[in-house]
Amino acid sequence: MSVLFEPVTLGELQLANRIVMAPMTRSRALVDAVPGSDMVEYYRQRAGAGLIVAEGTAPSASGLGYCRTPGIYSVEQMAGWQRVTEAVHAEGGRIVLQLMHVGRAASRHNKPAGATTVAPSPVRALTQVFSDSHGLVDTDEPQALTLEGINEVIEEYRQAALNARQAGFDGVELHCTSGYLPMQFMASQSNLRSDAYGGDADARVRFAKEVIEAMASAIGAGRVGYRQCPGNPYNDISDRDPAATATALCQAVAPLSLAYLHIMRSPLTDLDAFTLAREHSPHPLILNDGFDGLSASAALAAGEGAAVSFGRHFIANPDLVERLKRGLPLSRFDRKSLYTPGSAGYSDYPAFQAIAQELAQ
Ligand SMILES: Cc1cc2nc3c(=O)[nH]c(=O)nc-3n(C[C@H](O)[C@H](O)[C@H](O)COP(=O)(O)O)c2cc1C
């Protein structure tokens, strides 16, 4: 497994090893979408990763849609995140922030008053989201963005990238999958526009491309990555030809010297996402979904990517890198506390050393 523990450089990001922590929404933000002490501790514990991609975070109030997810558009949110990045850096880690605008995959019950739910077209996602005040609710009927509205959202992303850097993040990742706003533009079922942002694949990827360009112009392309999972149907998304759409985005951003493409394969499609990314993207690849230590090191040894990200294994194994290095057993996470408030099932999973000490007593 030694290749996993070798350093690697992705754009301007220098990673001590090739194990990346995948972004995971954990719904622990405090009131007004502000990161609190539990989040500081949770990320500090996982700083052994070569790179942490912190959870999907809203660039604006209208980008919120789930309960207790964080933002990066207010001074208070930036101060909360600054404590997180300082803690990770103090442990020698690197951390980027995933920018996630949920678009139509939202409930107004999870947004501050006055924040709207927007999408490329007025097509509701046939899915539900959880809210603390009303339980499971249908997603909102979205308002179609005007051309002016699109420019405003792109500007929100640009400002969010600047805010992230000011809060100490090493970079940002654009969430272009899982049926959120960029993917709503990319997919033919949710984008019925007839202007420059709708129609063929090149037009449908224009929004994501312009967001990536705006973020790169703000903080430097070498600190910007993006995430794709072609064919992922999550949040009621479907596309006539997901391979062609994913390829169009890879090609549209190819001229930029981006840090990486975080490419996720989905078990729900036959599409070979890794091969598609290797063939059409010039950027270093972070591979994701369903890896363990052995399969990750085999993929890297075969030259399939530059790094591998792990999601679920990081939940109950804050010291995942150490455990993989030493061949120690992995702990299993508790599904019931994935999205509940507070430290239980979040920042209270012990490192292996603590478990071993307890057993020895
Ligand atoms: C609790 C949970 C929350 C997640 N939240 C996000 C998210 O905010 N952004 C994202 O891009 N992916 C999210 N994902 C997907 C993970 O980043 C990752 O792609 C997935 O867990 C597959 O990787 P794994 O097999 O190593 O777990 C989430 C996954 C889980 C389990």
Structure, described:
- By secondary structure, this protein is of the alpha/beta class.
- It has one domain: TIM Barrel (Alpha-Beta Barrel), CATH 3.20.20.
- Helices cover 33% and strands 16% of the residues.
- The chain has helices at 37-45, 75-90, 147-166, 181-186, 201-204, 206-219, 242-253, 273-280, 293-301, 312-316, 320-326, 352-360, and strands at 8-10, 13-15, 19-21, 51-57, 95-99, 118-119, 128-131, 135-138, 143-144, 171-175, 224-228, 260-264, 285-288, 307-310.
- It has an eight-stranded parallel barrel with strand order 3-4-5-10-11-12-13-14, surrounded by five helices. A two-stranded antiparallel sheet has the order 1-2. Strands 6-9 form a two-stranded parallel sheet.
- α7 runs parallel beside α8 (273-280).
- The two termini are 32 Å apart.
- Bound molecules: flavin mononucleotide.
- Flavin mononucleotide (FMN) binds next to β4 and α10.
- Residues 22-25, 55-56, 98, 100, 175, 178, 227, 264, 288-291, 310-313, 338 line the site of flavin mononucleotide (FMN).
